[in-house]
Task: structure prediction
Amino acid sequence: MFNVKGSIVALVTPMEQDGNISWQSLFDLIDWHVDSGTSAIVSVGTTGESATLDVAEHIQVIEQSVNHSAGRIPIIAGTGANSTKEATYLTSSAKEAGASAALLVTPYYNRPTQKGLKEHYSEIASEVDIPQILYNVPTRTACDLLPETVADLSKIENIVGIKEASPDPERLSQLKNKIHDESFFLYSGDDVTSCKFLNGGGHGIISVTANVVPEKISKICELALSGLAKEAHQADSKITNLHDALFIETSPIPVKWVLNRLGRIPPGIRLPLTILDEEYVPKIELILNKLGLTN
Result:
């Protein structure tokens, strides 16, 4: 039974300078998150550069992550695609690899209707018996999965939650008003507003910032989920500048630069993404220094 709350890291896919996947760095990151109290790992989501990995690599990263985690932490596989057929294939492959769940971003670029979205997710759920989490991020996909559609999809047994990254500040309350199944998980997909989301009744964060300060994000989630809203807000306010910095350019550009700066991964990133512009380096260096992450 899938039951994950708290800090879920949207893990980067470490790469060497030439763009090849750095497997040892990936394994080291997984170990670090296990030790840091992270609740689960999203493998090959947007932050994991799913858009620049080919299908074989995509599946291999999931397989290697599941194998290395060895049951110590749930692996949620990013398996979304703008083709229902491809998304079904990736989701089936994730199940075969032993992933705990799949995270499926809304089909991007082709802008399906709400009817199309409902049929897309319904078909994948019927074809692959694995817990599935919807992912709505309209600023990236030009497609908005509306609360009414989410409510309909929540009635499907193996659709267990949603990662919500809509810019609409009322979206969480709208989802809660439409969905009456208390076992349906509501995850924030936006670090900047995630503490407010948790304090408003969300169940967790699928976080970019957790790549850098996993223990802090785990603690914020722990406080919020324990009803200590003020304390959670205070803890989150100390890393507000870091949240902002990690989106100063298109993610995962900044977070991969930071992890390389901290010695955790090599500098590789794949085109069309590029390394962080030198213009932003002093600002991020200052933030890291104030948080005690660098000398």
